[in-house]
Design goal:
about 900 residues, eight-stranded parallel sheet, single chain, alpha/beta, elongated, six-stranded mixed sheet
Length: about 900
Amino acid sequence: MKIGVLTVLAMVLLHLPLNLPVFKEDDSAQRKEEERKKKEWVDTIFSSMSEDEQIGQLFMIRAHSDKGAEHEAAVERLIKDYKIGGLCFFQGTPEKQVELINRYQTLPGNKIPLMISMDAEWGPGMRFKDDAMSFPRQLMLGAIQDNNTVYEMGAEVARQLKRVGVHVNFAPVVDVNNNPENPVINDRSFGEDRYNVTAKSYMYMLGMQDNGVMACAKHFPGHGDTDVDSHYDLPLIPHDLQRLDSIEMFPFRVLSQHGIGSMMVAHLDIPAIDATPNLPTTLSKKAVTDILINEMAFRGLIFTDGLGMKGVTKHHAPGDLEVKALQAGNDVLLLPENTPAAYKKIKAALADGSLDRASFENSVKKVLAAKYDYGITYFSPIQVANVRKDITDYRAMRVKRKLVEKAMTLVRTKENVLPIKDLKGKRIASLSVGASSKTEFQRYLDKYAQVSHFRTDKNVSNSASLVSQLKSYDLVLVSTHDMSSRASKNFGLGAGLPSFLRSLQGQTEVAMVLFGNPYGLKNFDDVETVMVAYNEEKMTQQIAAQAVFGAVSVSGKLPVTASPRSKYGDGVTTNYLARLQYDRPESVGMNPAVLAHIDTIAEEAIKTKSTPGLQVLVAKNGKVVFHKAYGHHTYKKARQVSTSDIYDLASVTKVAASTVSLMKLYEEGKINIDNPVSAHLSKTVGTNKQNIVIRDILAHHAGLKSWIPFYKETVTKSKSNPRPSTKYYKKSKTGSFNVPVTDKLFMKESYVGEVWKQIYESDLRSTQNYKYSDLGFYMAAEIVKENTGKRLDQYAYETFYGPMGLESTCFNPCDKHSKSVVVPTEIDKYFRRQTLQGYVHDMGAAMMGGVSGHAGLFSDANDLAAVFQMLLNGGYYGGEQFLERSTIQTF
């Protein structure tokens, strides 16, 4: 029983976006004229060819760009001697490949250019060395719900391939992988569902062919349900025709009717199609001619699979098998093991009539027609310069990132586990399984919260000890690394991991992230919260960490069934929680070449000793697109600056601590910024400050003095060598000398009152025009304290920094961080007489014990960016509304 093409198409349409065409109009006058021109060109070229040249057009031989002069000379000889029609490039580099294509295409005697192909299922990076960029494998793409992104990938793959001289891509793999034991297709397939496989194959095909590269559906009639690799043996597919037609051949049937340029026939033993013993489908006329050509009405090019594979050579000799492949109905002989023998046998078969000449000529004309369609009628040399840069530019990375984001799959989660929202007081640990050092996933987790990191071997040989260490955490993020795609290796997972996770889950909350084949989920039905990331590339690990914290929304669905609790289509959709994302400058319309000038400015600053080091972060549209550290902590160059180092923020305190705190109190109705300050700060009653308005203080229009050098009254009067007076300071914390100005200098507590006395008794200016002032922000901290009962540092942490996960943003950083990560601020030669590190530079804030409204806040760049991103988000961050948008507009 066969499913009608229209029925098939209707089913597939459910998986396709509505804004891309499924049918292509082909009856326009322009197309008819183009078909006439093509036929004329094909007939002219064909009639000018000798039989030898015609035979040569049906060969596509192997070419590498990494095998040296001997291999290159051998390829040249075959092209010259046998008039070869095409090359298939394998391992090498883009530069060398382009160089060789230029050379091979311009060999003397080439009547028509070579058709160049690659097996580039996840882009040309699949074949290039030196860590060339590749797109995700198809199984990962099978999780994506927006098929437009697969089209975008197809278009980008086409752009890259054309840049390296390629006309045909042996992709997509349209096999329906319904066998977890499959050793050869597996993660090369879009998955187990025929509709999903067909829809995504169509979109990949369309993206390539709309942009000038021929697609090739493989491996007909379907290689998905086998546990044998046809590279090494002939796989048996035991299913009947009804099953084959409804599952295995389903995608081929749809694509054959909707524009796929070519198909590749696999080496499979399928008795239901052809019961001839040991006859692979590649050599079967019943498979190729009767089904693919006649029944499915496929009119595109038909490639054999590689003719050096054991699936075909085990029972058929070189030369004989190429003749049989053409007799079966194939057009192009791919990677013959012995070209001279094959060539000779084909000539003989044409001479004795065992190879039908009309069929042979039809294949030659189909090859020529394909060359015409894809512009292979003449050759222009390809530019070698910048080829690597061109194929890995921002367009490629932008598409790849979108694919990875949309494929991320949260298989299941307990309520409120993933994505992580409120971070206030939450103790989080990460455990990497199978990694030898801190992973990229762990590094990116650190951007969102303070996370303790652990690692263990694949079998978790230290399981009891680990459970003991990890049980005190509120959440443990377990990630699997160094996985395998092979079921025979249990996908690279250790036997001890499932039992360890069961034990750990009995003690604390566990969320697992699988960086590998989703079939590996069969081991983890007991785990309540599981996310699949499909591979462990750096970009994938970065995005997975962002997804864990809701900086990236998750929408992927499992493309296969791995177990009763991990079935096809499973996947929880999550919302974007408006935390900072991390991406490339191009993603927000910024030019990385312009941002690169920051390097020059930073280097000049260091060179001229404006600073020993610095840290720069650039964020736009919610994305950090540049974050870099330069130089050292001090001019002694003992410690390099890190992007996680903590700095004294000085007057940024006014905004990032005092103002946001006042905003919250205003929003809650606890203060009115149009009231006199005395309404909310009782200590100002009876002073000349009692009637100044809070709004004016915040706008620096309150008539306050700029600042008061309080410290000068507490140091010796020597102009050349002032030192802290022993009347006010001691070198260790003793009795009433308990206000830490540094870790080696403690001020007498009573002098804090003197500071306030000077503030409250200070003169007001006669005019209330703008003049920047610290004094009002001293008072701002006191307003917070009087109206909440909490000191500014405590209130700001509990209200903002803690829930947002900003552990580096704090006052008195040495109370919670190692002093070594706090960048020294100054060598103080006028007050404290020491290098200031971990203690606020501002003298007045120091005399307040490091906590004041005008200075005292410390942070790294990343956490500070999060504070301002929250404000740009209208008060929303990490799934919580910290401030109302109207409040932010008011302030």
